[in-house]
Amino acid sequence: MRVLSLVGARPQIIKEAMLHREFKEKGIEEILVHSGQHYDYNMSDVFFEVLEIRQPHYNLNVGSGTHGEMTGKIMIEFEKVLLREKPDLVLVYGDTNTTLAGALVAAKLKIPVAHVEAGLRQHPKDMPEEINRIVTDRVSQILFCPSELAVENLRKEGITEGVYFTCDVMYDLFLKMKPLFRYDLFRTLGLKENGYIVCTIHRDFNTDVPERLREILEQLRRLSKRYEVVFPVHPRTAKRIREFGLAELLNEILVIEPADYLNMMGLIEKSRFVITDSGGLQKEAYWCGKRAIVVMPDTGWRELVEAGWNVLSEPDEITEKSEYIDNHVSLPENVYGEGNASEKLAEVILQL
C-alpha cells in the first residue's frame, strides 16, 4: 500500500505525523507533500520535537492568495506529483483549500481519496471551510469520522459507504503531550486553581466588527467582578482593539501574550471554565475536563454542545451563559474515542 498525504496547515502536519508513526509500524509506505498554503516547517516547534516530524518529500510552495488562486495553484502542482508518484491512496485532512484541491485532483485522476475529519458540518453553509468539507466528502471514497455525530451527518446526506468512526487523531496527540504540560504561567501570574477563566478570541466575525468586539470585552469586564479573567490576546484581536479604541475595557482583565501550547494547556487544566471561538480549544478544554462558552453562532464540534457540556453564545449572552457553564455536570465520556484513532485509521488503510 502506497499512501500520499497532502498537508498545508499546522494542524494537518500534526495529524499526519501521528498517522505516520502508525504507517511506519505497519509497513505502509507514505509520501508526504506540503502545499505551502499556511505554515512553514519550524523544527523548534514543540510538536516537531516530540513527534519527530520530518521534512516533506515535496513542497508545492503555493504561498498565499485568493481562494481561487490558491486552490488552482495547488491543483496544478499537485497533479504533477500524483502523475509522477502514482499512489494507491491520497490522504487529505480537515477543511482548508489544500484539502479541497488535493481531493479534486486525486478524484479526477481516479485515485481513491481518504478524508481525515470527514462529516463535520457547521453553519453558515457559505463559509469557505464548510464548502471545502462538503465537496471533499462528496469525492472521497474513504471517510474517517472523529465523532458519531460526524457519521450521522454523512448518513443524513446519503453517504454511508466507506464511512468509518475512527475517533479523533487530535485526542491521540493530546494524550501524548499531556505529561509535558507546563504550569509556569499559572504560577507566574499567581492564579488560584478553579479561581479564574481563560478567554481566547480571534475569529474575524468577532474581532472585525466593532460592536461585537466591544460587547465581548464588556462582558469579560463584568465577569472579572467574579473571577480573574486571563486573556491571551491574539495579534488580530490586539490590532482591532487598538483600531477601535477599546483598550480601556481591558483595565480589569489580565491580558497576556499568546501562550505556547504546553503552558496554554496548563492554564486550561487549572481554570474554572473557558470562553473561546477556537475550534481546537473547544475540544482541548473538554479533554482537560473544563466546560466552554463558545462565542460562535455554530460549531463544527456540535457534539459537545448537544451533550450539554459546551454552550454556544452571542457576545451579549456571555455573562448569562457563564451562570449555566459554571454549574457542575457529568463529563460526557469518550466523545472522541480513547486515544487510539491513529491506530484504527491505519488498520483500515492496511486492509484496503
UniProtKB/TrEMBL annotation:
- DNA-binding as a keyword of this entry, yes or no, is no
Pfam hit, one: Epimerase_2
UniProt-listed InterPro entries: UDP_GlcNAc_Epimerase_2_dom (IPR003331), WecB-like (IPR029767)
What transmembrane ranges does the database entry give? none
Q: Name one GO molecular function term.
A: UDP-N-acetylglucosamine 2-epimerase activity
> What EC numbers are recorded for this enzyme?
5.1.3.14
Q: Which UniProt keywords apply?
A: Isomerase
The UniProt entry, under SUPFAM superfamilies, shows: UDP-Glycosyltransferase/glycogen phosphorylase (SSF53756)
Asked if the record carries the keyword Isomerase, the reply is: yes
Domain (UDP-N-acetylglucosamine 2-epimerase): give its ranges. Answer: 25-349
What CDD domains is this protein classified in? GTB_UDP-GlcNAc_2-Epimerase
The entry assigns this protein to a family as follows: Belongs to the UDP-N-acetylglucosamine 2-epimerase family.
Q: Which PANTHER family match?
A: UDP-N-ACETYLGLUCOSAMINE 2-EPIMERASE
Q: What is this protein called?
A: UDP-N-acetylglucosamine 2-epimerase
